[in-house]
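Trying the structure run again after the queue cleared.
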Amino acid sequence: MIEKKSNPTIISILIPTRDNESDLIDCLSSIQKLDYNLKDIEVIIWDNNSNKDCKKRVKEFFETELKDYPFRLEFFENDSNYGVYTSRDELLRMVTPEAKYVLSIDDDVILPSNLLKDVLPLFSKDKSIGIIGPRIVYDDDPSETAHGAGFVNNCLGRYTTKDVQIVVECDYVIGCCMLIRKQLIDEIGSFDRNYYISHGEVDFCLRAKKKGYRVVYDPSVVVRHRVDKGGTRSLERMYYVYRNKLLVIKKNWPIPQKWIALFIYSFLAFPKAVINSILVNKKIDCREIKIIIIAMRDGWLNRFGKRV
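Done. Tokens:
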């Protein structure tokens, strides 16, 4: 009797990048070390108009260190900066039809060798699982969790993360490293590019849950992320964070929780944001307060996409 060979599980790894060649190269090096048949992996990189020197160094790395790489590699150069979630949407359009799972990551994460080996069995055991996120730690302090399991409160419009020690079902996982069942993408579509750079993963996970899929956080798998503690604080970042929180509520919350959450969030979040700005800057920063007001206004007026 001839033994029937099972089809390989194809994994598509998607990476948007911009002017970050050093971290991207380290990220790609960690992919090379994955405990998985690298012939069954494709890596697709979307470059958001990086400077010429950056792209030159990345291509030199391809030609030297990755000359004999076993996985398929594609590098797309865009002539403008699309932002994180427009880029992720474009990347998902390029995934090979044979892929069974998509690993969506940032260019500044370092993957552990056991990532696919330990996470994929969870999908096999439970067909209702659509998304799995690992524990994200700070690269310069791996003992501290940067992102845990994400939860939302439909009445208060509140987003929280919990640093739990066991596998749990949650409302969302952070977008810097998400393993997604390809079938889920076929059913609900891609990331919403209108969020631009923030909260696109929250929206994606909530849409998955509406379709009956489970979102799971697995703290046993640890991914290092090269970000500053407390996150990046810039006017642009603040605008999208505060605006997109409102947009996620308006798009995904059921009535009447939607309107309750919108009013509670608006009246509580604004004074909290102002107080936080004063505490961080140790003064009243009129530019930050102005951008918070603009963000809240645009959230209420459904102003999506790149605005600042």
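The first helix runs from residue 21 to 32. Worth checking whether this holds up in the mutant runs.
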